[in-house]
Amino acid sequence: MSSCPKTIYLDNAATTFPKPPEVIRSMLEGYECLGVSPGRGGYDLAVRAEEFVTGVRRQISEFFGGHDPNRVVFSYNATDALNTIICGLVEPGCHVVSSRLEHNSVLRPLHYLREQGLITLDLLPFDSNGFIDPQDVAKAIRLETGLVILTHASNVLGTIQPVQEIGRICYERKVPFAIDVSQSAGVVPIDMRTWHLDAIAFTGHKSLLGPTGIGGLVLRDGLDVRASRFGGTGVDSHSLAHTEEYPQHLEPGTINMLGVIGLSAGMRYIAELGLQNIYEHEMRLLRKLRDGLASFKRVRLYCADSMNNHLPLFMLNIDGISAADLGAILDGDFNIAVRTGLHCAPLVHQDLNTSPYGGVRFSLGPLNVPEDIDAVLDAFQVILESSL
Amino acid sequence: MGRHEDVNVRNRDKTAVVGNNVLFDEEGFLVNPDAWDETMAENIARALELSELSEFHWQVIRFLRKYYVSMGKAPLNNELRKGAGLSLTQIERIFPGGIKFGARRIAGLPNPKSC
């Protein structure tokens, strides 16, 4: 594996790669020392492992402006966390507000619940620049609305949604507001308290720079989320009833200790470099890429005219070449890895008229360098000249 | 034309029947890649408005077939470039429909079901 061929990796919105060497080292060293079941035994090592996990809960809570480290619940990934929050908050007969920008991790649980006749659902549109209008949220909320759940930033368009304004609306209307921060966590600041967020669902392996298999929820104090899975928690073991204590209430079974170690290391790496510095670096490269690609006549960029309120990603198509083929050519001829297709967000593509074949997404990470952008622009020059 | 004269591989068609019950999926890919032969390739090519397959086309088609039959899967992008002896940019250019909807369909490979 040490002789991995050099790939220009521009699929960081799927997962960041490679991980910083510091993260990999911390995982190896941490797991060698603490790879036991945290919170389950009385021996010193298990106690130390539990203390470590508690420290990571504190680290996450502070990172997101949470209320209480015990309200940080680990999951396998964001999809797992989103299923937990959706199924744990909605009641039969409840109305849910979401959007057409969502990933299937939100759309599919909601669709399932609607198909079962358990909820009614409004999916809000986005405008031609890729943004949801907070006033649409205000208009959609009704008496029986039990949840507003939105992506913080589109995984297809990169547009960062006005969740602060929406949070204020939901707070005033007393409707729980949850956001999916899969794409934004580790890229831009998130502050649960001042933004009036009741829950956020995150994944560890994208811009938080941890490994796959770890994610979680951060919940507002007092938010009651019904458990949908039950089992061993290391607390209240005498009772056959599942514990009401957080975080164990939503965390049955042994957690992914290696993932927790890696997530913590990824967040430390971000803190050392500075969130703002990483964002500025990525956006500088993205602007260079956008400007270069926009100069090619047959390239069509989606919602990338302005880079304000934008993540370091965008999608494009070339007239006359399918997205799948463009991705294959970039990979096979130029060693450039990008994500093609629908990006698990089918409604965005319906509305952009890019369904069913989607587009080609470029997403940058902290380890990309200007030479990566030059390579993409050179590749496009060759591809476009060749396919005239 | 031979027994595949009514081949129909336009995008988004519903399952089409070719001659003697060869099935294509809704995107024009062979449902059973083992049903493929070179006559069928010529007919699929004609349906894609490629009147004649050149030696370059056959180079790509034969590599795809050989790889698929021996490995049970399509080649990786890099393997296709090396094995076919053409860049993917060139393959894209010479096949109507490009790599996926041209070369792969004519070579009778299954539909790559990725999104």
Task: Give the SSE layout.
The complex is a heterodimer of chains A (388) and B (115).
Chain A: E1 8-9, H1 21-34, H2 44-63, E2 72-75, H3 78-89, E3 94-99, H4 104-115, E4 119-124, H5 134-140, E5 145-151, H6 163-173, E6 177-180, H7 192-195, E7 199-203, E8 215-219, H8 257-273, H9 275-294, E9 299-302, E10 313-318, H10 323-334, E11 336-337, E12 339-341, H11 346-352, E13 359-363, H12 370-386
Parallel strand pairs in A: 1-11, 3-4, 3-5, 5-6, 6-7
Antiparallel strand pairs in A: 2-8, 7-8, 9-10, 10-13, 12-13
Helix pairs in contact in A: 1-8, 2-8, 3-4, 5-6, 9-12
Chain B: E1 17-18, E2 22-23, H1 38-47, H2 55-71, H3 77-84, H4 88-94, H5 99-106
Antiparallel strand pairs in B: 1-2
Helix-strand pattern of chain A: EHHEHEHEHEHEHEEHHEEHEEHEH
Largest sheet of chain A: 7 strands, mixed
Main sheet attributes: strand count, strand direction, barrel closure of chain B = 2 strands, antiparallel
Following the backbone from N to C, one meets helices and strands of chain B in this order, namely EEHHHHH
Rounded to an integer in angstroms, the radius of gyration calculated over CA atoms of chain A is 21 Å
Shape of chain A: globular
CATH class descriptor of the domain at 34-110 in chain B: Mainly Alpha
Number of strands of chain A: 13
Which term fits the overall shape of chain B?
Answer: globular
What would CATH call the homologous superfamily of the domain at 34-110 in chain B?
DsrC protein, C-terminal domain
CATH architecture of the domain at 34-110 in chain B: Orthogonal Bundle
Distance between the termini of chain B: 36 Å
**Helix fraction of chain B by DSSP (H/I, runs of at least 4):** 40-55%
Number of strands of chain B: 2
Question: What's the CATH first level of the largest domain in chain A?
Answer: Alpha Beta
Oligomer: heterodimer
Instruction: Give me the side-by-side strand order of the main sheet of chain B.
Output: 1-2
Secondary structure category of chain A:
alpha/beta
